[in-house]
Design brief:
69 residues, mainly alpha, 1 helix
Amino acid sequence: MAPAPKEVVITGVDISFFSAVGLMVKWSLASIPAMFIVSFLCAVFFAMGGGAVAAIAAAIGAIGANGAG
């Protein structure tokens, strides 16, 4: 049987200033592609939601066939 896991408490991290700055620069550069992906997913979500609202509005006659209210 495996031994019970023990609790670990981190009391500090010893890292130099320039290493921390380099790590933050890498994080910021890595976030750029993630920002594009999240923006694309949000655009798709809102486009589908807007299309659904427009379809419902057209179905109840709130807007005309040419899209003008």
